[in-house]
Amino acid sequence: MGRLKTIARRTFLIGSAAIAGGVAFGVYKYKTPHDNPLLNDLPEGAAALTPYVLITAQSITLITPRADKGQGATSVQAALIAEELDVELDQIRTDPGAPSPAYYNTALAGDAVPFRSTDDSLLATTTRSVMDAPIKFLGLQITGGSTTVPDGYEKLRMAGAVARETLKAAAAQIHGLDVAALITERGAVILPDGTRVPYTALASTAATLDPVQDVTLRAPDQWRLLGKPMQRVDIVAKSTGTQNYGIDQSPPGMLHGAIRLNPAQGGEMLGFDATEAEKMRGVVKIVPLPGGIGVIADNTWRAFQAALAVDVDWGPAPYPADMAGHWSALSESFTPDQQDSRFRNVGDVDAALAEDSDLRFEYRAPYLAHAPLEPVNATVVVGEGRVDVWTGTQIPRFVQKNVAHIAGVETENVHIHALMIGGSFGHRLEDDVVRHATRLAMAMPGTPIKLTYSREEDMTHDYPRQIAMARGRGRVKGGQVESFDLGIAMPSVMTSQMGRQGLPVPGPDLQIVAGAWDQPFDIPNYRVTGYRAPELAPISSWRSVGASSNGFFHDCLLDELIHAAGADPLAERLRLCNHTPSRKVLEAVGEMSNWGGTPGPRRGRGVAFCLSFGVPCAQVIEVSDTDAGIRIDRVYVAADVGRILDPVNFEGLVKGGVIFGLGHAMNCEITYSDGAAEQENFDSFPGMRLYQCPEIVVRGLENADNIRGIGEPPVPPAAPALANAIFAATGTRLREMPFNRFVDFA
Amino acid sequence: MKLSVNGTEHEINDLEPDMPLLWVLRDELGLRGPKYGCGIAQCGACTVHIDGEAVRSCQVPAGGVWGAITTIEGLGTPEAPHPVQAAWIAHQVAQCGYCQSGQMMQAASLLAETPTPSDAEIDDAMSGNLCRCGTYPRIREAVKTAAAKLSEG
């Protein structure tokens, strides 16, 4: 118990300090509800019944503060509110709202503590709930970690229910009726005589009432929208070229900005000569920036051309100039001094592995760019004592604070207008583009400046996924896996990422071992150790974060040991698995893929499993070893998010996650030479192309107790399933990504 | 310089002939359906038609345009979508959606030339268009749905 208490206390410190050193704040503070930001400039006669529902005499607006970067966040947030509010999605508009502490993310707490998501012990639950206090207090309005659904699942339905009951109370008051006699449907209160009173007609009365707080959420079997196929609210705009993204923002009088930063990310600019660039057509201004220069011009292309024409003297990289230096830093990190965590330590690994074993392997995962297809961009206008920012961001309150600091205005005078994001994969958890755009705009007060990164600037200043190395060893006995010892070394993503927001992150970084220490297996001697490598190139959260590399390490080691034991890869994983929903997804892919059958000559089948973000996900991949190279024929994937809110979007995100995981495992890496990223565009960082895309068969299960998000969990099992399949087809073990270093792909 | 875009003639004076068509459309004419993704013909987000042929507008200099331009805005509208757009809506292809204007322009060009493409022909025609979200399975399905719709007349 003594040890457990230590962990709990330390956990609290990690989580809260990771957010801003907020442990000093009393819990009583977080119990005070945050102010409703919609009340700040409410039109006459309008009602903002909760921070999520705004009704005027003309319209109903649902506030969807989690950023939509393609995962369908806007739609699912709207549907959660609409389900209880009794409006249809074609009757409402959505608005991301203004940044506000009222929109804090509750679900982040759950993943900031060192308890397996499958752990429902009192200690685990208590610690998770304690973590909620500082996150609420600090008002972290963050989109990430597949938390939009778990965060909003009750909160948004509750917001809809409170608004609905308050509107009914307003109708009861106006018409002198008993509330119990009223029902609601399609945005109206229905009186006993059948009269429909639209919510919009009730707004001004409802605004005078205290919101009805005593509401009961409907049971899932009463749902109209949730759990059934829905049409995403953005699908028509995105199918007709009419969706407005950040890069399309064009306020009147706007000028265009480009940037050129030190190719060694974070390196200094020692000097520059812009004589030639200043003479170029359309160039309005060249602006020195921290680590580079910006150009303001009357057209994006002219700005790009001028940025390239500036002669710049760059300082060296603040990290090893070449890859050998990065890999040796990782290689040298497997030491007791650099041990960061050992949350999994069962049996006696040292005794079991005292005798040297042949079962000893090293694995590697490279830096990877997020490379969403919309390059990062932001439009900023600096006015008198106020700044307006149009951009897509996952961290609006940090952006607001940072812009205020740079521009020297009060935080509340920075107005963030959140726009649709053309892909992120974690990229929009960074805000350099907004900071630089603010500096450009400060050079021309009153003129809106849209800063667009060229693809080359975006990819080479991407804050890539962590580089990581793992060393595994094990022992098998009697046809079974008996000992499993995995050490993982990587720099801390959280330290690098939060450091750029000025936040210290003391304590172990769970991401160093996420997707490995927390797997639902019982192995007699089972140990997972995290080693903290020194800070190298600056890194950031990449779709599935630590699990993106660790899922590969853990499952590939398991597969090697199972092979050494002579056991069946699926049967042995099932035998070791101690968590029912996880067993069910493994059984599902076995059945879907007809696992017992033989795949045929020059073909191979691999299975992999990873539990990440609380979601067990299993995949079986079938490959052919063709004369043109490896062809990925089929992927069978099963995942369990507890409850699927939109089966159409669920299937799309699972397939997309599999393709994302496979494409990067096949052919993507960021490498540094002379301090600069060598991959600048999609010719050298291709990912998967359509002709390579396998048939993907998806099954969603609903056995898990808690509802979870599906954005990230399909990514980690894809790479190991592919590696295991290639081994089955060719006999070649791939222990390093990308695999095209070792095999060709058809 | 004269450009015909979506049936409208534009007289653009004093434009550098080497400015890529993409930036003329986006920044000079305000047509922002075609997207900038790579600038080197690797992603296809900027795909438009010139005389019905799918081209990467980031690689066509404004001075070298040889025919009438159609952008996604000219293919169809939310009120009257082209059959390809209707199929994209029906299959809910888009996730972030940023590549989809280019995907649909590519698909429309394919179907105009090859009304009932085989799986291999779809793969060949569509593989120059990158989708980072991984919507390829639905793109394949939507192309087939659009082909069926178009061949019904």
From TrEMBL, chain A:
GO molecular function per UniProt: oxidoreductase activity
Highest taxon above the source species: Bacteria
InterPro entries in the cross-refs: Ald_Oxase/Xan_DH_a/b, AldOxase/xan_DH_MoCoBD1, AldOxase/xan_DH_MoCoBD2, AldOxase/xan_DH_Mopterin-bd_sf, N-heterocyclic_Hydroxylase, OxRdtase_Mopterin-bd_su_IorB, TAT_signal
Domain (Aldehyde oxidase/xanthine dehydrogenase a/b hammerhead): residue spans on this chain: 240-318
Coiled coil (UniProt feature): none
SUPFAM superfamilies attached to this UniProt entry: Molybdenum cofactor-binding domain
Name of the featured protein: Isoquinoline 1-oxidoreductase, beta subunit
Origin species: Roseovarius lutimaris
From TrEMBL, chain B:
Domain of life from the UniProt record: Bacteria
Keyword Metal-binding: yes
Residues making up the signal peptide according to the UniProt record: none
Domain 2Fe-2S ferredoxin-type: 1-75
Any GO molecular function: oxidoreductase activity
Stored InterPro entries: 2Fe-2S-bd, 2Fe-2S-bd_dom_sf, 2Fe-2S_ferredoxin-like_sf, 2Fe-2S_ferredoxin-type, 2Fe2S_fd_BS, Beta-grasp_dom_sf, Diverse_Oxidoreductases
Annotated keywords: 2Fe-2S, Iron, Iron-sulfur, Metal-binding, Oxidoreductase
Name listed for the protein in its UniProt record: Isoquinoline 1-oxidoreductase, alpha subunit
